[in-house]
Design goal:
Radius of gyration: 20 Å
Helix content: 25-40%
Number of helices: 8
CATH topology of the largest domain: GTP Cyclohydrolase I, domain 2
Pfam families: GTP_cyclohydroI
Strand content: 25-35%
InterPro entries: GTP-CH-I_C/QueF, GTP-CH-I_N, GTP_CycHdrlase_I, GTP_CycHdrlase_I_CS, GTP_CycHdrlase_I_dom
CATH superfamily of the largest domain: GTP cyclohydrolase I, C-terminal domain/NADPH-dependent 7-cyano-7-deazaguanine reductase, N-terminal domain
Largest sheet: 5 strands, mixed
EC number: 3.5.4.16
Number of domains: 2
Strand order of the largest sheet: 7-4-5-8-9
Number of strands: 9
Family: Belongs to the GTP cyclohydrolase I family.
GO molecular function: GTP binding; GTP cyclohydrolase I activity; zinc ion binding
Structural class: alpha+beta
């Protein structure tokens, strides 16, 4: 018997009010001393509103899983999944890559869904630590694997473009659950395959 796919959608609530966001963006730019009189800047508040609405709205997707008929019990790892999110403290972007792996239980996951799950949790104001844990916890809950590992490496423009201006610095966070946390050999294999020295 096949298991129906889980439909994953963004939290319910009112959609973005682009008109109000545009007015607020215009007020912000004006308050910062930026004149919106030129042809180049006249449409900027609307572009800002639409850009942030896009950054904060993940696409819906079906979480497709399949029976693990072969009893595959080795690590499944998707490396280099692009991550883009927005720091909740300054509303500046952070970008990087995620490495997401799991040790299958009774079901395996459609591989593209690992990227979809990362996108789902990244499309909101975030901190990298929470994002890493949300992806791992959600996979653990929905897939019931024997272990889950998530590593995110990202460059935060709130660190590189302002404040300390630490250009070229990156932040690495990880969450390990189940066997990948408890078994040293499994943990080492995961970190070796991600290219992280664990």
């Amino acid at each position: 018997m096949s298991t129906p796919a889980l439909r994953v959608v963004h939290e319910t609530g009112p959609g973005p009010d682009l008109e109000a966001a545009e007015a607020a963006a215009a007020d912000l730019l004006t308050a910062l001393g930026i004149s919106l009189d030129s042809e180049s800047l006249r449409g900027t508040p609307g572009r800002m509103a639409r850009a942030y609405a896009e950054l904060f709205t993940p696409r819906s997707f079906d979480l497709t899983t399949f029976p693990n008929d072969e009893g595959y019990d080795e690590l499944v790892l998707a490396r280099g999944i692009p991550v883009r999110s927005v720091c909740e403290h300054h509303l500046l972007p952070f970008v990087g890559v995620a490495h997401v792996g799991y040790l299958p239980g009774e079901r395996i996951l459609g591989l593209s869904k690992l990227a979809r799950i990362v996108e789902h949790f990244a499309c909101r104001p975030q901190v990298q630590e929470r994002l890493t844990k949300q992806v791992a916890d959600w996979l653990d809950e929905q897939l019931e694997p024997r272990g889950v590992g998530v590593v995110i490496e990202a460059e935060h423009s709130c660190m590189t473009l302002r404040g300390v201006q630490a250009v070229g610095s990156s932040t690495v966070t990880s969450t390990l659950l189940g066997t990948l946390r408890e078994d040293a050999r499994s943990r080492q294999e995961f970190f070796a395959l991600t290219g992280i020295n664990g």
